[in-house]
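Before a colleague's protein record goes any further, I have to sign it off. Would you go through it and say whether the fold makes sense for this chain? Take the sequence as given and treat only the tokens as open to question. The record follows directly below this note.
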Amino acid sequence: MKITIVVPCYNSMKYIKQCMDSVLNQDYDNFDVWACDNESIDGTYEYLLELEEEHPRLKVFQLPNLYPNGYGEAQEHVIENLESDYVTFVASDDYIEKDYISKCMAVIAKDPEKIKCIQSGIRGVTHSGREYDPTGLNQPPHSYKNISEFKQQCLTRSPVYTPTVIWHKSILPYMRVHEAHEASEISCIGAGDYDTYCYLADKGIFIYPIPVRMGYNYRWHEDQATWIVQQDTTDYDEIIQNYWRMKWDM
């Protein structure tokens, strides 16, 4: 089973080296890496082009910067062009352990006909890599037994650690940014992933929760999209929850 690791990038020079080192040096055999740059102006794109010459697994793309505080551009590029069986997204300021992909794919390999999408636990870190947990991120991974339980959790919070999700290619058509937003009749910039998980549940697509951390390190810093979105006074979570509560009559 081949997997593509996608690294969305925008002005990422501060952390991009550690990120790319971590994804390019996975111990899983069958993978490639796509770095999708959103018109960076700090040298990120040029750095990636140099790296591409050294690593045959790496492909670099430059995409227009259309969606603030998200990676919709990379996601849409993947939907249109993916040839691998699976795909996962690693933020350019994060990094993964050397055996992360092999551990995740071993879970999928137990029943690939049934397991089309997984998530796992996550570890928050500081800019220097020290464990850091300002929001309870490092608590036990999300847990639910079926789509009904998943929907119930969706009505209070997003029950998915987005960076850890691995997707089978058959799910990609459901992940289109515009389709998810039309389904909920809202435009939730920076919260679109939450809405997408509700949309997938509505279509009967189950995201299997792995009850442990597999090796994703999520870096907290003041320049990241999550903190920027939190400064927005619009309560996107409430908008999403209210819409799906009415649609599911729950």
User: Anything to note?
Assistant: The first helix runs from residue 16 to 24. The chain has nine helices and eight strands.
